[in-house]
Please model this.
Amino acid sequence: MGYTIALAGKGGTGKTTIAGLLVRILKERKSGSILAIDADPNNNLAEVLGIKISETIGTILDDVAAHPDEIPAGMTKDRFIEYKVQSAVYEAQGFDILTMGKPEGPGCYCYVNNVLRNVMSKLIKDYDYVIIDNEAGLEHLSRRTTRQADTLLVVSDATPVGLRAAGRINELAGELKITIRNRFLLVNRYDKDLEKEKIKNTGLDMIGQLPVDEQLTKISLNGNSLMELKKDAPLLAKLITLGDRLCKS
Ligand SMILES: Nc1ncnc2c1ncn2[C@@H]1O[C@H](COP(=O)(O)OP(=O)(O)OP(=O)(O)O)[C@@H](O)[C@H]1O
Ligand SMILES: [Mg+2]
Model:
């Protein structure tokens, strides 16, 4: 069973960046297979890792809906979709990545979620590490795409709004009885004057704080990959020091 780290937090706090950097750190520093899952319907994890993907669970569902005649005789539609999704796992250098995406058109994406949940529970067994980037907010918890993580890593900035959101995510994770072994708070773009009380109010154990990184700002503005961040970049260096605690079972 792969060691699973799921990221959560308010919009724009740095979930995707940190998910991407964790993939990079695991790839460069640990032996073992890695699966990155982009479970945000507005996906961009592959992009920040420098990969162009053409298939997502969303596009597969659109394809199957448009060409139902392609479902082989004797195979159910669900089984066919599952098979197509498993073969859409993209093999990058040093890690694999699966992107949820969303089907075209308005409405609920419950179905794409169900497919992700089913496929995920099978795929997790085939890897040593699984990193799941989620959309902002709490929805992924109630939809239970985050249901069996070893570590829930709640990312927040140092603002009261971000920290309150982190606290709510922690409460909901507790109420939903999701099997999560560790829940940590990671403060990104930290403020040296951040009061301990505000951190304590989230109910989470703070694993550390990450600095604003000028190198990352440039990389992000140019649309370049996180793989280009230099090894001594403050953000990467700090995250490496937290890595061992994150992966402790
Ligand atoms: N420590 C940091 N230093 C500098 N820039 C950062 C830092 N952390 C994140 N950023 C930048 O902030 C922006 C938002 O980060 P990111 O996309 O990782 O957030 P997110 O939580 O995934 O957002 P969303 O909720 O929209 O998915 C990006 O442009 C990223 O490069
Ligand atoms: Mg994101």
Observations:
- The chain has a mean pLDDT of 91.
- Residues 9, 11-17, 40, 136, 188-189, 210, 212-213, 216-217, 220, 235 surround adenosine-5'-triphosphate (ligand 1) (CB under 6 Å).
- Residues 162 and 199 are 11 Å apart (CA to CA).
- The chain has one domain: 3-246.
